[in-house]
Write a structure and sequence with these properties.
This protein has helices at 11-27, 30-56, 66-90, 95-100, 102-108, 113-140, 150-177, 181-196, 208-216, 218-226, 232-256. With 261 residues, the protein is mainly alpha-helical. It is globular and about 65 Å long.
């Protein structure tokens, strides 16, 4: 058989190998374990405060079940935690390797930009999904003593997953742009906050510009999930933003192959 026709390593295999290596490195970092513990502790406090308020001031939550009043609010808080921590978690995944020269070796291997970025993306998702799983144990503990709206809870979890997919893609893109880690984190956080706060009133008197900004608002789409609404528009929004930043990141990594290191 002609050597040029011999099968190259499978795309899935290479992506899995990169993701496995990155995920192992992530979980070997004491700082990431500290992040897991700190987030769990702070979110447990938030959950306790929400539950205490629900039990001590029932008049404020008249007509609202515990899922809507407590658990949905808890998952809104987890979303804010992900916004705060993701840029600082992803800032090292590409930029640090570029700065140390390790990325040069990766680019010299027979690996495509898609395999490199998607492998790192899956590794970051694995860590964030682990964090989401851990913090989700708290609200599910209420099922021991009361009935829960599991459909609403699963929609809240789906909203957090959609948000994580989006945030990680933004963080990885800026990590490939900046070799200085904190510049990558600041740039990613700035873009995330611009998207998060892009909402404007969309009432009867709303202008076309108002409606455009309303549709671009990440917080509006995320809130739909936490309200228990599985909206195709919100799913499409998070999918498009995620895909846009992943493609931009792949293009950036691909362009590095032509750089004279």
């Amino acid at each position: 058989m002609n050597k040029h026709l011999s099968p190259a390593p499978g795309i899935r295999t290479m992506i899995f190998d990169i993701a496995k290596f990155e995920l192992t490195r992530v979980f070997r970092s004491p700082g990431n374990w500290l992040i897991l513990a700190l987030c769990q502790f702070l979110l447990a406090l938030i959950f306790y405060n929400l539950l205490s308020k629900y039990l001590s001031q029932p008049a404020l939550f008249e007509g609202r079940g515990i899922t809507d009043a407590v658990i949905a609010g808890y998952y809104r808080s987890t979303g804010l935690f992900f916004i705060l921590m993701t840029p600082f978690f992803t800032m090292r995944m590409v930029g640090e390797e570029i700065k140390t020269g390790a990325f040069k070796l990766l680019l010299s291997a027979p690996i495509s930009a898609i395999q490199i970025l998607v492998g790192k993306y899956f590794a970051a998702l694995g860590f964030m999904a682990c964090l989401l799983f851990i913090v989700s144990l708290v609200p599910f503990s209420l099922s021991i003593g009361t009935g829960l709206d599991y459909g609403h809870i699963l929609t809240c979890i789906a909203g957090n997953l959609a948000l994580i997919f989006c945030l990680v893609s933004i963080g990885l893109f800026f990590s490939s742009i900046f070799t200085q880690q904190y510049l990558a984190a600041i740039a990613a956080f700035t873009i995330i906050m611009l998207l998060w706060t892009a909402h404007s009133g969309a009432g009867p008197d709303a202008t076309t510009i108002d409606l455009i900004f309303h549709s671009l608002s990440m917080s509006n789409h995320f809130t739909r999930f936490t309200e228990g609404v599985l909206s195709s528009m919100s799913i499409t929004y998070f999918s498009l933003v995620t895909l846009a930043f992943l493609v931009a990141g792949m293009w950036k990594i691909h362009s590095m192959r032509s750089i004279d290191w």
